[in-house]
Amino acid sequence: MRNILLTISYDGTDFCGWQRQDDNGGGEAERTVQGEVEKALEKMHKQKVPLYGSGRTDSGVHALGQAANFYSPIETIPPQNYIRALNAFLPTDVRIMDAKEVPESFSARKSATSRVYRYFISYGNTVAANNSRFSWNVQKYEPNLSRLNHFCQCLKGELDCSSFAASGDESVSNNRYIDDAHFFIQKDIWGQNLLVFQIEANAFLWKMVRTLTGTLINLDKNQAPWDSMEKILLAKDRTKAGVTAPPTGLFLYEIKFDGIRRHV
To answer: What is the pTM (predicted TM-score) of this model?
Structure first.
């Protein structure tokens, strides 16, 4: 058996998240990214082939670089040929971007050392149509990069992120190791500015990135005191944080495997 690692991009708008959801009542299961890729794998291999993702994304969340591995009994096909073969069976809102053979012990989830997310925010009165599915439009808002990045300074190292965990999160620990968090401006194809929040950590709590984004934007909009974000973090209380930003602007941007593996 060969262990194949895939890099997957998807438009999450019409998916009920990443994770396969089997319908035990005999009806039609919800449409998920994992489910679609596993259907393609089954068509290619003529048998069921489980797919193991690096982590879940919620309903409506997108990915540019989701990672997932599977074990293939086919010994002859070059790894890069899986790209064309699987894309032929997949819907257009899921694409295999890369494929390579990895050691048998490799796991997309357990071998990952960090995950990078980017959240895209459009602002102003007119939003380009191609941005409406892939950004959060915040009207009557002009971002202050200096203030936003000042608020991000406390998001570094091993932290108790309880203030940014959604109700119902089942994590054993709310501690996460954040490598980096910052904002920058990026031009879209029309030359309009998009505000981008990028964060890298060993792992994330449920809806953590969206809650961080909503909190930071709210603090900037209200010109909150400089120590506001640090106080929210130290409170370890979700009610002290801001709104949860919508899923439309969130992308799983990259999974890294070559860093320091941290268990916190």
So the answer is: 0.95
